[in-house]
Specification:
The complex is a heterodimer of chains A (about 300) and B (about 210).
Chain A (H helix, E strand, L loop, with lengths): L2 H34 L1 H27 L19 H25 L4 H25 L12 H32 L5 H37 L3 H11 L3 H25 L6 H28 L7
Helix pairs in contact in A: 1-2, 1-4, 1-5, 1-6, 1-9, 2-3, 2-5, 2-6, 3-4, 4-5, 5-6, 5-9, 6-8, 8-9
Chain B lengths: L4 E6 L8 H9 L10 E13 L2 E14 L8 H5 L5 E3 L5 E3 L9 H5 L6 E3 L4 E3 L5 H5 L5 H5 L5 E5 H8 L18 E4 L13 E2 L7
Parallel strand pairs in B: 1-9
Antiparallel strand pairs in B: 1-8, 2-3, 2-10, 4-5, 6-7
Classes of the chains: A mainly alpha (about 300), B alpha+beta (about 210).
Amino acid sequence: MNVHDWALIAFSILVQMSVGAMWVLRVVHYFAARKYGVEAADRLSDRALLALVPVIALAFVASLFHLGDPFNAYRAVTNLGSSWLSREIFFGVVFAALVVVFAFLQWRKIGSFGLRNVIAWLAALVGLVLVYSMFNVYLLPSQPAWNSWATPISFFATTFLLGALAMGAAFVANYAYLQRKEPGCADTQCTLMREALRWIAVAAVLLLGVELVALPLYLATLAGGSAAGLASVQLMVGSYGWVLALRVVLVFVGAGVFAMFLYQNAMSAGQEKVLGNLAYAAFVIVLVAEVLGRALFYAVHVQIGI
Amino acid sequence: MAKQKAFYFDSSACTGCKVCQVACQDKNNLPASLLWRRVFHYGGGSWVQQGETMAPNNLFAYSVSTACQHCANPVCRDVCPTAAISKRADGIVVIDAEKCIGCRYCQWACPYGAPQFNEEAKVMTKCNFCYDLQDQGLNPACVDACVMRCLDFGDLEELRQKYGNLDAIEPLPTGEITEPALVITPHKHAQMSGQGTGRILNLPEEV
């Protein structure tokens, strides 16, 4: 692990979290607006949306630390014709721009609802194309540990798992803020937050299932493939075995155990404090788990050849 | 078919002396950390006890000198986000240091370890087939330096007609990923890529 790898870990995790968060915000806002009106839905999600802006900015700053010559980073979009890395950077910039524009318009309520809605859905869709480009970057024939069906699965699982739990934590923080500012006025907001958290908990458990099923299948197919693939598996269960174990335990605790408690506590009103702590804890634990998983991803790729 | 410059390597004659590697570093003025041409020692087998003595059991070892293969399908060029890598009309694959941003993605893509990061210049570098010498009608430095005359270069098709189609032996990867412009005469103990029973015998810091 060196600074170049950490730059990639930070960039890919933060970007994927932002894409997932954008989708969660879109879906939550859509259903919230249908049930309680646009204004209540805005109050639930506007601050969470604004929080995405510094996260995305941080991701791009982190990515520069990967480069030998960061001042010429703009050149990285000059081979869109054949390089998935070029496409990743390109769609990353488009996604970031759309999110920033949407967040600003939404914050200041500039433009019609329809216009903002179109920009927001466009951002979410470009986000999917971005994650699609990201996993294609790693589908290199020389890298058996990456050149696998498991790479897209794990990238999308990380995207939506972290996006969902990050927004869960954001909704809780937003609710606490609203309560402090105008105590007692937040009944609808409380209901909205609890319903959103319940669905977030359900999504987290489902995505945990995906990750836990994919992992052993991935290890088995990789070990049965090339010698380099087998060497990667040996690293993962050998010298890096403790990272893998810690990653699995943490994601199980965060997206399984804590998500279950989250679901239960979100059933009835009056437990907002506990709910809040659970949502924060689930997010932090899963964030650590996913960072460990991504660190492992960059640490164990054994190249074919010399 | 377009011209394609290629290296020829005779593993049956190579003694693993590494003068090609040294000549390359000298001609290209490379720091110690960069090895555009590398010599691998590959071997296997074991020793078994026979009474009071240890006897060799299928012991073998041979050397492979390798650089950039200037591939027909250069994956390094395809993945480069800044289009800094290109193929000349003669098939030589070159990196434009002006365009390179040092992201090292080509390093992940290449199975020959050809693109290497220059820590001082902060860009990727690799064997350029001494195209400056070739453009003057001279030989690449490694070819001229080889004391066993086991390195040569020329047009790929001509080399294939002369020496055959073999483009990979252990520890090189099979040719299917990048279609290397390489023609090999195998050592008598050479093992086919992907089916090797031996291992690289060099110290890690050596290559």
